[in-house]
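Person: Please comment on this record:
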Amino acid sequence: MYQSVSGLSRRGGRGRFVIIWRMKTLLKAALWTAAALLALALLSPVLVRRYLPPRKVRALIAAQAQKSLGRQVRIGRVSYGWRGITLGDVAVSQRPDFSAGTFLSAKSLSARPAWLALLHGRLRVDSVFADGLDVRVARGQDGRFNFSDLTSPDVRKPRSGAPSAPQDAAAAAGLTLQVERAEVSDSSVHFTDAQGDDLRVSGLQARVGDFRLSGPFDAALSFAVSGRAGGRPVVGSLDAAARVDLGGADPRAFSARLSKLSIEYGGLTLQGTGRVKGLSPCRVSAKLAASSGGQEVAGASWSGTVAAEAAGARAEGDATLQTPGVSTARLSVLGLPAALPLPALSAGGRLAYGAGALALRDFSIKTPAGDVSVSGTVSGVSGPAPAVSLRVEAPALDLAQAGRLSGETGLGLAGTASLALSASGSLPRPALSGQARLAGAGAKVDGLTLSGFSGAAAFSPRQISLPDLEGRLDGEALRASVTVDGYQTRLNIRVKAAFGTLNVAPLLAARAAAPGKAGAAPAASSAAAPARPVDTSGEVTIRRLVHPDLEARNVSLSWSLTGLTPDLRELGGWAKLSSNGGRFHVAQDPSRRSEIGKVLLYPLLVVEKIGHLVGLRVLPNLSDAAYDEIKGDYAFARGLMTVNDSHLYSRAGRVKARGRIDLPAERLDMRVSAQAGALAPVDVVVKGTFEHPKTRVEAGKLLEQSAEKLLEGPAKQLVPPQARKLLEGLFK
């Protein structure tokens, strides 16, 4: 038994010895391997420098890069160190050489290879660094970029019999490229195009971890941008992070997940996430949230495809938009009109963009005021005059709610409206077709209250017609028919209306008090764009008219005018006015007169202006006079008004006027015949201007009329026959 145990003990001792001996052997092997690896790492730069001197490497890399890129390449220096190989002062020319400029330059490009990975058929680079990279990108008139030759297959396609590209040889040898880390710092990109855009990307920082041609890796990008695009200044920044898979050599396998996107531009902040699958076309899904000054202004989403082509980007997909309601003052960077309120809404539908045209399909907009659907196209969206071909439908819009949404609560909108319109042609005046209908509509406009309006409007490319519009104006019944022709070019408005009571005094007072309506500087008005001339005709009857210059009963007005503009320079046609009773008075504030009212009452206003002659009142006082009849008959030609007949009959006297008035210059060439009370009629020739009239009383006519009165009636018997013959002969 002892021997047995002793034998086992000896055998156990030998086993322990064997294990210890083997562990020591493995430890020595590991130490020697580590030492060898350390020596190899330490000696690698020395060995590389010995067998691949910098001058030779610089020439080799420059030659290979120049052959691959089809451009000249310069390398200032090559150095080896613990971070691997570093190329300094690198430059790549524009196509074909540096005489065309520099496309890319860098202060330094560094790469640290993993030498032992080559033993396993892998070309692995531990890290790549680029510092001070500067790229100049340009786009020509044909839409091609100055790097298009680097991405076009036919430019870089090897000739028949030529050796395959290095990446093909690597693939044939079973090599794979893997970069553990890549970083770009303190770099910039300068972009220009033939349309005048000039953008500078600065402070460019880019980081890539665990990079590979096939398989996912992480990437981050940040930069600031400044310059001009689309004729507007651009200042902004971007900060983004994503996980990317290049998909190897298959563009369809490309994918990217955007986990962070932050864009600051013109006071607007965009935050977003998204996914991309495939290249050209890309399948994209994204969500964006916009805020301004910490306030949410909009949220949007997109799911569809995007493709880059020589003619520009193309995109198609489903889009949504929501906004809680915002003023466009917060969105000024988008080029929208300032201080335009955008109501709370949600919208969605299918959008397609390509070749400068935007197509909307089944696009609906939901608002508290009602739903609106839009379909069609907008072409030339980036041009000065976009063209539209759109269909807009709104079955029932609540006008009161629409007013509250838009912030226009002062209009006092009421009632409902429905519309089904098609618009085609160039903005801002496309041709319209379809119809719109009002029901119980109302509003407050410049002191006038409109209520209970109903009627339908028919639209065609040449005409807008409201054949039967009924409602109440300040509580009085109103019926009207309005037709507008040539709204795209030269307006022709035809009106037929019947009013109960029409008080235009509040309207004129509101317009006179409105900013920019009165008291505007002449320079400002002369600098404004010329007004479109308007042709108009119509008939209006008013049971009672209240105007700053008169209160009239049973007014009838008819006209046919052409070339109507604020300056009246091209005015032509005719007009007639009549009223069978009321009161005539001159407004104390001329700014509260309407231009049309002033023109029609011009002759009577002239009479009031020249009412006092040499201190003796010989014309009726029209500053506040009741009348029995007013009539006017006028003709117009190129701003010259011919007064065929203008008269006022009242208890205070009778006034008749004939002649011409140059309306733009307010120059007078008139003859006024007036009789004040029981005085003899007097004729007055009026020249000069309305503000500074020049008058001449026809004394001979006045004496003739006085002599005729003297030779009639009882006084005739008191004048001797000889004297009577003498007086009669003086005025024949």
Observations:
- The longest strand covers residues 176-193.
- The CA atoms of residues 71 and 96 lie 5 Å apart.
- The radius of gyration is 45 Å.
- The chain has 13 helices and 38 strands.
